[in-house]
Amino acid sequence: MATGFKYAYGELLTDIAKPFLIGVLIAGAITFFFPEDLTLWANDHPLLSMLVMLVAGIPMYVCATSSTPIAAALILKGLNPGAALVFLLAGPATNAATINIVRDVFNTRALVIYLSMISICSLSMGYAVDWIYTLMNVNPQAIVGQAGEVFPYSVQLISAILLTGLILYNWFSQLRHRHDRSHGPAHSH
Questions:
Q1: Contact between residue 47 and residue 82 where contact means Cβ atoms under 8 Å apart
Q2: Average pLDDT, the chain
Q3: Which of 66, 159, 171, 178 could form a disulfide with 19 if both were Cys (CB 3.0 to 4.6 A apart)?
């Protein structure tokens, strides 16, 4: 059990900290800089908004850890949830390295099939999500906005402080470990 905690709050947290923080920073920038009337455009052009998110997501490598807060911020700004899902599916599934590997190991035809299938599946799922939201008459901005109301502010603040503390502790531990290795026994004479 101790090994599990050490892994979860040590190695795993260290591995996801950087993409998570990048995602939170980008989400903050989106929340601050994006126009409030994104809702009008996205509602008037749901398929076009999905295609825009597909085109944005495929070449830009965003792992699932960083794309989740970005998608939430876009939904808060009024992007239809289907377009956000397209971004969540296409971004982590593709990146420049994956695209090059598929092309090099297989061929360009396989790459076209790979990207086409990701595109078709992402757009289909995005359309299905928008259809479900419309069918159930649910406002996605209200749902994403209410997620923060589940826990009292004090719990949110304490959790944020603990998470920040754990991330900083792990980063400093890594730095100390690297420093100790580079100045280890060979330098002790």
A1: no
A2: 80
A3: 66
- Claim to verify: residue 78 and residue 161 sit in the same structural domain: no
**Rounded distance between C-alpha atoms, residue 88 and residue 53, angstroms:** 9
Residues 62, 70 contacting (CB under 8 angstroms): yes
Same domain, 38 and 66: yes
CA distances from residue 33 to 19, 25, 29, 129 in whole angstroms, order as listed: 21, 12, 6, 26
Per cent of the chain over pLDDT 90 is: 11
In angstroms, rounded to a whole number, what is the distance separating the alpha carbons of residues 84 and 78? 10
Rounded CA-CA distance 69/147 in Å is 12
Task: Note the pLDDT tens digit of each residue in 143-156.
Answer: 665 555 667 788 87
Identify whether 39 is part of a domain. Answer: yes
pTM: 0.67
| Same domain? 21 vs 89 | yes
Q: Are residues 88 and 165 in the same domain?
A: no
Q: 27: which residues sit within 8 A by CB, 6+ positions away?
A: 69, 70, 72, 73
Domain count, the chain: 2
125 found inside a domain: yes
